[in-house]
Amino acid sequence: QVQLVESGGGLVQAGGSLRLSCAVSGRTFSRYAGGWFRQAPGKEREFVAAISWSGGTTYYADSVKGRFTISRDNAKNTVYLQMNSLKPEDTADYYCSVDPQPGITTMMRASSEWHYWGQGTQVTVSS
Of 22, 39, 93, 121, which residue is least crowded by CB atoms under 10 Å? Predict the structure, then answer.
């Protein structure tokens, strides 16, 4: 069993920053890809960012490109999402995901491509 625990969410004013963390524990894979998705009230879960095991490949949704940065520390089994210049439309529950493969593809913008999920952390951006 794999456990993913997100932290770092909260309330922030527009223009502010937050850093989300996703701690991965339990059954360990030799290498895994990491991702972040978000879901706003009344909307479907949408892709935010993904990162390969090595960190050498990253993908971002157009809506967050240039503002958000995904990174990872494999020694700590943690995936991060640094969010800068936050906007009210970034308000959502943010979910961490991992998949037991080292690489990422553009297909992994779909939530169905990911095997394991955290419980989510809420991010609220006030105007």
Answer: 39
* Predicted confidence (pLDDT) per residue in 51-90, tens digit: 999 999 999 999 999 999 999 999 999 999 999 999 999 9
Give the CA angle between residues 24, 87, 82 to the nearest 5°.
30
Are 33 and 21 in contact by the 8 Å Cβ rule? The answer is no
The token pair at 43 is 């909307």
Spatial separation of the C-alpha atoms in residues 118 and 99, rounded to whole Å: 12
Q: 17 is written with which tokens?
A: 């920053």
Q: What does the pLDDT read at residue 43?
A: 96
**Rounded Cα gap, residues 15 and 10, in angstroms:** 14
Under 8 Å between Cβ of 36 and 49: yes
Q: Which token pair is 106?
A: 């553009």
Can you tell me which residue has the tokens 């996703």? 22
